Predict the 3D structure of the following.
Amino acid sequence: NAGVTQTPKFRVLKTGQSMTLLCAQDMNHEYMYWYRQDPGMGLRLIHYSVGEGTTAKGEVPDGYNVSRLKKQNFLLGLESAAPSQTSVYFCASSYLGPSNQPQHFGDGTRLSIL
Amino acid sequence: EDQVTQSPEALRLQEGESSSLNCSYTVSGLRGLFWYRQDPGKGPEFLFTLYSAGEEKEKERLKATLTKKESFLHITAPKPEDSATYLCAVQAIGDAGKSTFGDGTTLTVKP
């Protein structure tokens, strides 16, 4: 099992360019999440999804959009990249169950905006 | 608003020198507290879930404990391979599985 796969692993953009980050999971998880992690900081939630066709805003959603057209995929879009969006982006997924479920993470996309 | 504060920010130990990492939290209703390990260039990897005050979980040299306001990750006789950033996160009741993360403690174990 691959678990959670993120593509691309690295990307450099110019200010104002757009791009989409792809997250794919093969664990049949209902919940998926996008986080950003800046140096010396923990993970901040951007957007999340509780199921196919649903999305919701997290802690820092401005400047980002998401879509979940298929259960296994969660896309994060930057319409007009800004230097403040330089960060490492992590996707995670978790199982919907009666008890607390940990999140399973990909290895991140390192994004630089020049 | 849920909050998680981890201390210290960084911890340097000699191999075999035991210590503890702290995670203080404020949450409206705790559904679960999670500990993750993150290696450089990698995503966080799940270690433990704690559900209620008084609970303890162990894995090799690591033991996690939980009170009503904080959690500790105790590291006994650490080895260099235990060097990593340790993240604490809380889930609140009714919060769609969302987690609030602390900023982490970076542990370095010198041989």
About this structure: Chain A touches chain B at residues 4, 31, 33, 35, 40-45, 48, 50, 56, 58, 90, 92, 94, 96, 99-108 (CB under 8 Å).
